[in-house]
Write a structure and sequence with these properties.
about 325 residues; alpha/beta; Dihydrodipicolinate Reductase, domain 2; 2 domains; seven-stranded mixed sheet; binds NADP nicotinamide-adenine-dinucleotide phosphate
Length: about 325
């Protein structure tokens, strides 16, 4: 048995679903992987830095983390000292332009020899090489399976299952909100009504601008290029174009002509090692697998030097399926 003290920074949709999943999988983690754990820290912007030295009850934490805590401290440093986690789950909001403050949260934890698991793309695109080296120097892991396509395995697929395989080209539909909006507008909803539908389904934020302006997709392309092509790419390098300039008439005419608009993410590495990246709306031929990805589904198409084409598609993703990514990373840490 290996016993872990866990702390959660960010207690929104993903953080809360992770606690739910940890509760559901507690017995299975123990029986199959010899993992036992106790949750000693919960923090968020509004909750502050909460600690329970003896462990938060998972149900009590979900009901009211403040009542379930036995101590509140004022800083990240004091929180890490009091909660003494072995693993930090960093699930705070994403900043595509700087990765902050999550980048500093990851630095602080790794610097103390704490494993870090994040669903946040910000620290990945703004600090991947630095954080990976810091983790190695401290003998811990920096893992982020959920950062792209939620719980679907992209990074662990290449890391664990595809040794000596080099990614040459990537195309995909990675932003559920814009794909749902385009699909709904094809079916006759206005842009505003389609955005509202995405918000009601819980896949778009109150301010959907990161999605519709292409920044969420740009950060994902940057993460794929940085990690899987090993060439640092920042979201600004992608120069994303969003979907807001498309009119409903254009979207419906394109679908009627059998060449629908999709927000396509692309990255390509040439023989000299230079990476070209883009995010923008494209009209696709009907035979293109990306043309048939509808609603909130996603599809990633990888072209590698050893496997010509490998597709990974995900349907019905939500914050619960995203929380599976950090859970899987936790099991990976326990086996390393
Ligand atoms: N939702 C998904 O399906 C999904 C999929 C893939 C990746 N992700 C990534 O996972 C992360 C969490 O997403 P989510 O859907 O859980 O978002 P969310 O529901 O908006 O929750 C974000 C959490 O971060 C906290 N937070 C924000 N700024 C903070 C700060 N400066 N310091 C400490 N805590 C801060 C918030 O605190 P308060 O509530 O107290 O303000 C909240 O608890 C994001 O980086 C997102 O990009 C999400």
């Amino acid at each position: 048995m290996t016993h872990y003290r866990l702390a959660l920074l960010g207690f929104g949709n993903v953080g809360r679903n992770l606690v739910k999943l940890l509760g559901e999988k507690q017995a299975e983690l123990q029986a199959r992987y010899g993992i036992t754990f106790v949750l000693t820290g919960i923090a968020s912007r509004r909750l502050g830095w909460l600690v329970n030295e003896n462990g938060f009850g998972l149900e009590a934490a979900l009901a009211d983390p403040q009542t379930a805590s036995d101590q509140a401290v004022d800083t990240l440093d004091a929180w890490l000292t009091a909660a003494r986690p072995d693993v930090l789950f960093e699930n705070s909001s994403m900043n595509p332009h700087t990765g902050q403050p999550a980048l500093d949260y990851c630095r602080a934890a790794l610097g103390r020899g704490i494993h870090v698991i994040t669903a946040n793309k910000g620290p990945v695109v703004h600090g991947y090489h630095e954080l990976r080296q810091l983790a190695e120097s401290q003998g811990v892991r920096f893992l982020f399976e959920a950062a792209v396509m939620g719980g679907a395995p992209i990074f662990s697929l290449f890391r664990e299952a595809l040794p000596a395989c080099n990614l040459k080209r990537f195309r995909g539909i990675l932003n559920s909100t814009t794909n749902l909006i385009l699909t709904e507008m094809e079916h006759g909803l206005s842009y505003e009504a389609a955005v509202k539908k995405a918000q009601d389904l819980g896949i778009a934020e109150t301010d959907p601008s990161f999605d519709v302006d292409g920044w969420d997709a740009a950060v994902k392309v940057a993460a794929i290029a940085t990690v899987l092509m090993d060439v640092p790419v920042k979201p600004a390098d992608v120069k994303p174009v969003g979907i807001t300039a498309l009119t409903q008439a254009q979207i419906q005419a394109a679908r009627a002509a059998g060449r629908p608009y999709k927000l396509v993410c692309q990255a390509e590495k040439d023989a000299a090692g230079t990476v070209t990246v883009s995010v923008g709306p494209q009209q696709l031929e009907s035979g293109d697998p990306l043309a048939n990805v509808n609603g909130s589904d996603s599809l990633a198409i990888f072209e590698t030097d050893t496997l010509y084409r490998l597709n990974l598609s995900e349907g019905g993703a939500d914050a619960y399926t995203t929380a599976y990514g950090p859970l899987a990373d936790f099991v990976t840490i326990s086996r390393s």
